[in-house]
């Protein structure tokens, strides 16, 4: 450990931190390029090629040209995901828990549909197994 003084340890940690920060920025730019629906396929290919061929210049130019919208696009996507999650939770809560009586009622309705010929044997078996496993 004598050959590696404290300043060198600090500088190595600093370079490691900067390298990780650079990779995160690079991946964030690439993700933002593909997240943006306003960009055409050619524009996405151009930005991706620019960022891959000239990474420092490409990321710098991208941040200047389109950096303001990055946060807005990320916020909009997060809001869309939250809306979808809330809708799913509300739908699941509205259905309520399935009780054995509810399963029996559903099986009875399936049997009635099957007896009338509204659903085939395969559809009946598939729906019946779905009701029994849920």
From TrEMBL:
Span of domain SHOCT: 105-132
Keywords in alphabetical order: Membrane, Transmembrane, Transmembrane helix
InterPro entries per UniProt: SHOCT
Membrane-spanning parts: 7-27, 47-65
The keyword Transmembrane helix is annotated on this UniProt entry: yes
Official protein name in the record: SHOCT domain-containing protein
Protein source organism: Streptomyces regalis
